[in-house]
Design brief:
Blueprint: E1 5-10, H1 14-25, E2 30-34, H2 48-54, H3 58-63, H4 78-81, E3 98-101, H5 137-151, H6 179-196, E4 200-203, H7 242-246, E5 251-255, E6 258-265, E7 268-274, E8 281-291, H8 295-305, E9 313-315, E10 320-326, E11 345-349, E12 360-366, H9 373-376, H10 383-393, E13 397-403, E14 411-417, E15 423-428, H11 435-452, E16 456-457, E17 463-465, E18 500-502, H12 517-536
Parallel strand pairs: 1-2, 1-8, 2-5, 3-15, 8-18
Antiparallel strand pairs: 4-11, 6-7, 7-8, 9-14, 10-13, 10-16, 10-17, 11-12, 12-13, 14-15
């Protein structure tokens, strides 16, 4: 049989580009599909505080021409409310096939997926994080290094957050810290023993951000515009990898192709695609099919292929919370105007020594480049009073998030039929019974630890991150050493579907508290190399 490609890859997000590159390097004919949505609003020029002081039309930039920023459409995060970002996550009415019930079910039809608007936090997984995976750190080490060199990363060092692999990661010059972060880290160096005695460790954030140019991308300009768009392309997005992929003559890249269904076809696979208006619906065939469409869409495609209707499937999430810290000596100081608005410090917080999965992971951010409403709405004051207080507090603030292990989530997905009889994945959210206890323990632990460093939690600033709002969906098609129905092997190959590989977060059998994206990309790179080796041997 003649196939349209040696492999079809569905999705051009971080895992999709990472699995595609090694296959192209091996000489395989690869057909890459994605929804094709692109940013319509240009990345804004200038620095945040210059615009705030001088631009009379700034409302268009920060609220949008039709005030769309005042109409929240995604999880409660400034990245989702920023005008110009909605192309990355707003659904296409013609393909609304995923829904949430008490769960933020976010999918993307954009080139590069949600990497267009992510926070750029990354990490390596050590033996503890991989305890439930059919992998060990040595399996991922070569791919960690390859991906890090390709995308450009900062912050990896042998500090108190080292997983054991970090020193081997090729890392650029460290990111310049904000004033508040610099003060906190200096105090940590002096009071490390006291803070670690409370089970908390601090270190440099690991980020996919450039501090020096790489290929066509520029270095961070410290303009505080991270939320609104990175003009220098210093913040990695998988769209940055597309030109390199397109340089291979064996790549057939088709943006605008939404995959509606997949099915076995003899020794290969058939893919039903809804193309752009000028192309309509069509089918493709391949010997190997790689799903990198994002965990929820990938799960819907697999469940529909297997006709597994009304069967509950666990969805592992990442419960957590946001909070705010204040450095009293900085109250009323001048607001810093040239900073990097994303992670400045990362931290871990240990739980019960007998339960490694109790560990938490978080990051601290400056408040200089975030919308005031993000903090004002969480202050235990009237709004006018909160606005006045924020003006004094802003120079003294560090904003934080913290994530627990996925074992504290209790979400489930089910393939159902909608009113028109069409299959739809419905995800219902929840948390484990022990979540409230762990949340309270962790909150008290962090308050005590940061107080040792002269940083005080703002009363009532601790705000839970609801089910699905962290946009970490895992475990629906988990990797196992000996997979059974509905599971994948250590190379992402679906049980009972030879040649169908999954490389997105759906195959993670657990959701550690650490950032997952670098590990997902490294795992996709590892799987891509394996697919290429098998192809060469045929």
């Amino acid at each position: 049989m003649t196939y349209d490609a040696d492999a079809i890859v569905v999705g051009s997000g971080p895992s999709g580009v990472s699995v595609t590159l090694p296959m192209l390097e091996a000489g395989m004919r690869v057909l890459l599909l994605d929804g094709g949505k692109e940013r319509e609003r240009p990345v804004p020029p200038g620095a945040y505080h210059d615009i705030r002081r001088e631009d009379p039309e700034q409302w268009r930039l920060f609220l949008g021409d039709d005030l769309e920023a005042l109409r929240p459409a995604g999880p409660p995060s400034p990245k989702f409310d920023a005008p110009g970002s909605r192309f990355a996550f707003e659904p296409d009415p013609a393909s609304e096939r995923v829904a949430g019930r008490g769960f933020a079910a976010v999918v993307s039809l954009a080139r590069g997926g949600l990497s267009n608007i992510w926070g750029a936090g990354i990490a390596t997984y050590g033996a503890e994080e991989l305890a439930e995976f059919p992998l060990d750190p040595a399996d991922l080490a070569p791919s960690y290094e390859a991906v890090a060199r390709r995308i450009g990363v900062t912050g990896f060092a042998a500090d108190d957050l080292d997983s054991g692999l970090d020193a081997a990661i090729p890392s650029l010059e460290p990111m310049r810290l904000s004033e508040n972060a610099r003060r906190l880290m200096a105090r940590y160096e002096r009071r490390r023993a006291a803070v670690q005695g409370l089970g908390v460790r601090l270190g440099r954030p690991r980020t996919a951000v450039l501090t020096e140019p790489l290929d066509a991308r520029g270095a961070c300009e410290f303009c505080d515009m991270c939320i609104w768009g990175c003009r220098a392309d210093a913040i990695y997005s998988s769209i940055h990898d597309l030109p390199a992929l397109q340089s291979f003559q064996t790549l057939d890249y088709r943006p605008g192709g939404v995959v509606e269904a997949v099915a076995p076809d003899g020794a290969g696979h058939r893919v039903a695609v809804r193309g752009p208006a000028d192309r309509g619906r069509y089918e493709l065939t391949c010997r190997r099919l790689v799903l990198a469409a994002g965990a929820l869409v990938t799960t819907r495609l697999v469940l529909e292929m297997q006709e597994r209707f009304d069967e509950p499937v666990p969805v592992i999430g990442a419960p957590g919370f946001a909070f705010a810290l204040c450095l009293p000596e900085r109250i009323g100081a001048s607001v810093a105007t040239r900073e990097f608005s994303m992670g400045q410090i990362s931290f871990t917080a240990a739980g019960d020594p007998g339960r490694p999965a109790d560990g938490a992971y978080g990051s601290l951010f400056p408040a200089s480049g975030v919308p005031a409403s993000l903090v004002i709405d969480r202050m235990p004051l009237t709004r006018p009073g909160a606005v006045r207080l924020f003006r004094w507090l802003q120079p003294a603030l560090l904003l934080g998030n913290c994530f627990l292990h996925g074992r504290y989530s209790r979400n489930s997905a089910r393939l159902e039929r909608d009113g028109n009889g069409l299959p739809r994945l419905v995800v219902r959210g929840g948390v484990a019974d022990e979540h409230p206890r762990r949340y309270d323990e962790l909150r008290r632990q962090l308050i005590r630890a940061f107080r040792k460093l002269g940083a005080f939690a703002i009363p009532n600033s601790f705000s839970p991150i609801g089910p699905g709002e962290a946009i970490r969906y895992a475990g629906t098609l988990p990797m196992r050493a000996s997979p059974g129905p509905g599971e994948t092997d250590r190379f992402g190959e679906l049980h009972g579907a030879r040649g169908l590989h999954v490389v997105d977060l759906s195959i993670f059998p657990a959701m550690p508290a650490k950032h997952h994206t670098l590990t997902m990309m490294a795992n996709a790179d590892r799987i891509g190399r394996t697919i290429a080796e098998r192809w060469r041997g045929e």
